[in-house]
Amino acid sequence: MGKKHTSYRISEEGKQCIQLLARLLGVSETAVVEIAVREMAEKKGIKFEQSHTTATTVSNG
């Protein structure tokens, strides 16, 4: 699946956190954001199909 250009505004502190994590993990800043979003989604019970175009939520109750 190709990547799409997307931009967001972020606080200076948030930017510094992303930069630090990228250096510590040895990955790009983009990878840090993708990893963080996927980990948060997983914790919230959001599951993605193989195509990554369909998401479903799983109730924790």
Description of the molecule:
The mean pLDDT is 87. Helix 1 crosses helix 2. This protein has two helices and two strands; from the N terminus they run ααββ. Strands 1-2 form a two-stranded antiparallel ribbon. The chain has one domain (12-57). The N and C termini lie far apart (33 Å). The protein is mainly α and 61 residues long. Strand 1 (46-48) and strand 2 form a beta hairpin.
Keywords:
48% helix; 10% strand; two-stranded antiparallel sheet; single chain; 61 residues
In short:
The protein is mostly helical.
- SS elements, strand count: 2
User: Pairing-aware structural class of the strands and helices?
Assistant: mainly alpha
What number of structural domains do the residues give?
A: 1
Average pLDDT figure? 87
Estimate percent helicity. Answer: 40-55%
Q: Which descriptor suits the 3D outline?
A: globular
Strand content: 5-15%
How does the major sheet shape up? Answer: 2 strands, antiparallel
CA radius of gyration is: 14 Å
Q: What low-confidence regions span 5 or more consecutive residues with pLDDT below 50?
A: none
Distance between the termini: 33 Å
Number of helical elements: 2
Instruction: Give, in order, the helices and strands.
Output: HHEE
Strand order of the largest sheet: 1-2
SSE blueprint and pairings:
Blueprint: H1 12-25, H2 29-43, E1 46-48, E2 55-57
Helix pairs in contact: 1-2
